Amino acid sequence: MSLISISNLSVRLGGHQALSNVDFSIEKGEIVTLVGPNGSGKTTLLRSIIGAIKPSKGTILRDVDTRIGYVPQSLTIDATLPLTVQRFLNLPVRHSRASINEALDQAGADGLQARQMSALSGGQFQRVLLARALLDKPNLLILDEPTTGLDQPGSAALYRQIEEVRQHLGSAVLMVSHELHVVMSASDRVVCLNGHVCCHGAPEIVASAPEYRALFGSGTQGALALYRHDHDHHHHNHADGSHEHGECDHA
Ligand SMILES: Nc1ncnc2c1ncn2[C@@H]1O[C@H](COP(=O)(O)OP(=O)(O)OP(=O)(O)O)[C@@H](O)[C@H]1O
Fold this sequence. Notes:
Blueprint: E1 4-13, E2 16-26, E3 31-35, H1 42-49, E4 57-62, E5 68-71, H2 85-88, H3 97-106, H4 122-134, E6 140-144, H5 152-169, E7 172-176, H6 180-186, E8 189-193, E9 197-201, H7 203-207, H8 210-216, H9 219-228
Parallel strand pairs: 3-7, 3-8, 5-6, 6-7
Antiparallel strand pairs: 1-2, 1-4, 8-9
Bound molecules: adenosine-5'-triphosphate.
GO molecular function: ATP binding; ATP hydrolysis activity
Pfam families: ABC_tran
Organism: Shimia litoralis
């Protein structure tokens, strides 16, 4: 059975239709990247998978063996609140010192135990979030734009760390990424979301799809298009929210 198997998922948030009729699954050990413009429902899909958002329609099935580790897009910690890394990793559930040390080590954040959360650099903070996600030895690691706020070298280093973790744990990885080289080189599958699944498949198949090109284009313009998502394809049946793969239904 798939680690996660989603069918016909629709989510409404405060009167807004965030997701419509999404089918999606993730298998053991695979790396799946979610791409899509801002507001396209990527975080909503991830939060639905971890059970933080209740779907208005559809089903999300988890294999009994599925253990999820989740790294959120951002986490605000009150800077006036004294909170060491060690204590943060013991919330809400206490873990042994050995497990905490091991998780920090795997996340490349060894030695930060006694530091204040509010005093960490962006890269260290993301690594501590990664360590927290590793505490329960997940076989599915879910990361929502893990390199947000990091510069290029910091971001490359974090992706290397994630790859190391994946090899060590043999876990599947589901992540949102805006970084083209990561999407293209490090994913088994790419899912392009825009309220519905626009397009999905192996990176090279998705890359040749008009929907993907509308997102990525080429060069700098392509990187910008990722955020703009010039939508030059037609959505048949979009008004009723039905699923549409267009010319990219190769998966
Ligand atoms: N609590 C809420 N109430 C109403 N609308 C919401 C709520 N949370 C999210 N939305 C809307 O749902 C849509 C999907 O949001 P989501 O955060 O999933 O997008 P995203 O693809 O992760 O975006 P980004 O790339 O900017 O992180 C957006 O239009 C957003 O404004």
